[in-house]
Amino acid sequence: MTVKDTDMPRQASQLPSSLLVLRNILTFLMRSPTSAFGLIVLGLLIVIAAFAPLIATHDPYAQDLANTLKAPGNGHYFGTDELGRDIFSRLVWGSRISLTIIFLVSIVVGPIGMIVGTTAGYMGGRLDTIMMRITDIFLSFPSLILSLAFVAALGPSLNNAIIAIALTAWPPIARLARAEAMTFRKADYIAAARLQGASDMRIIFKSIMPMCLPSVLIRLTLNMATVILTAAGLGFLGLGAQPPMPEWGAMIATGRRYMIDSWWLVTFPGLAILTVSLAFNLLGDGLRDALDPKQMNRR
Amino acid sequence: MTSNVEIRNLSISFGEGPAAVKVLPGVNFSVEAGECFGLVGESGSGKSTVLRCISMLTDFWQGQISIGGRNVRDIPRLERCRLLQMVFQDPYGSLHPRQSVRTTLSEPLKIHGLDDHEGRMRRVIRDVGLTADFIDRFPHQMSGGQRQRIAIARALILEPSLLLLDEPTSALDVSVQAEILNLLVRLREERGLTYLMVTHDLAVVDHMCDRFAVMLRGEVTEVLPRAAIQGNHATHPYARELIGASLEYEGAL
């Protein structure tokens, strides 16, 4: 058959289309300096977290009481803290904690927000009203205060901080997904899917969600900056990661007492938080341009 | 399979209470199996609403619609999908922008648990006049006419006997319109389909339909055979006016 012959090479080149899209998005992001900065910082953060044992010069928990509050230098790039621990090594190991928080919060918040939002938006009616009122209740609290309440109830620890942040971070995503879903539910291709016998769940998962995914992804990336800040805030208040852990917020909290004499205790963790949350914001902005449907059509 | 359509006292209103708008006050007509039946009328006369009621996309209507002697409401959903399908007006809005032709065509096969996906897809793609290498394209990689062919392929892949056509050519170029209409004519001959076609172009009716109904403000004013167009044999004043205007327009061209 001639048709078979002609379309075989085409299929081969089309197969890794998702990889191709990913490469296109990355090239697009690298083209603008701000989103390139975000991408590079994020890449660095992942590399640092992955190779923390190799990059860190000291054990992050090793105390050296003869060597406390030393200024940067002498083999300690960023100085030492009040117990003589190397701040650089603690920052390096702390990147693992930050990435864990971001990752866990995102994989909890993304799907929950997406499912609640798309279901409410597609189904409409009473279900929509109920789901959105619940979302409104969550939205009406400032997220840090609500996380504080959750952590106070569950007890202070890193895991509880992650749960608390996840519980407060999904409503904006649900809102967004609902708004998107409402614009698509009347589309002809949804009607066509219904005419083919697709169940509501199938339509939500296969037709609505792919359409909401780009904006949710952008929102999630922008959210990561807030997640880092909230985690640092909880750590600072003593409600997140507990003292020996090298969490950036907790490091600032303990360093606060020595801030006047030993500036390096708060400056470097503060800079780390600033850089990473800035990187996520810039990356989110870049993604907004990269995932714009009109841009997508050009690819 | 016979798929004659009987519509008795079909009425529907949107909204509730005193604000409710009665769109269809009571529509009656019937389409014989294997026939091509046209629905014409001005914008907002309820033509498309009738199609959406028959296909159960809108399900809060009153009255009775039966296909092949069975009440539409009594036909199970999946069986109904294999009995009737719809082709929409705008091929730019009726194909999912993020789904390739392969996904679009294989979804219904998966839902209905049919076998030989590849073979069925290739056959239906060839039936609508495209080559098999279109299977891996996305909607934005196709022209309007090609998209509409894919939309027709999607409607045909479940092998329905009744096709509801909601102005299938009005969003297309004139030259492409003719291609799609000829495709529809050919498919009907090959597969013995029943067409119920909404249009506001009497030339399309003249080209394709055996009979047609003229609708005005939700009511069927008159059901006419195709032959009534040429000499304007309509008796209802509105139908006469509509056909007269159309003949005049074509005469001017």
UniProtKB/TrEMBL annotation, chain B:
Residues 7-242 form the ABC transporter domain. Pfam families: ABC_tran. PROSITE patterns: ABC_TRANSPORTER_1, ABC_TRANSPORTER_2. Keywords: ATP-binding, Nucleotide-binding, Transport. InterPro entries: AAA+_ATPase, ABC_transp_ATP-bind, ABC_transporter-like_ATP-bd, ABC_transporter-like_CS, P-loop_NTPase. GO terms for biological process: transmembrane transport. One of its GO terms (molecular function) is ATP binding. Belongs to the ABC transporter superfamily. This is ATP-binding cassette domain-containing protein. It comes from Paracoccus aestuariivivens. The lineage of its organism: Bacteria, Pseudomonadati, Pseudomonadota, Alphaproteobacteria, Rhodobacterales.
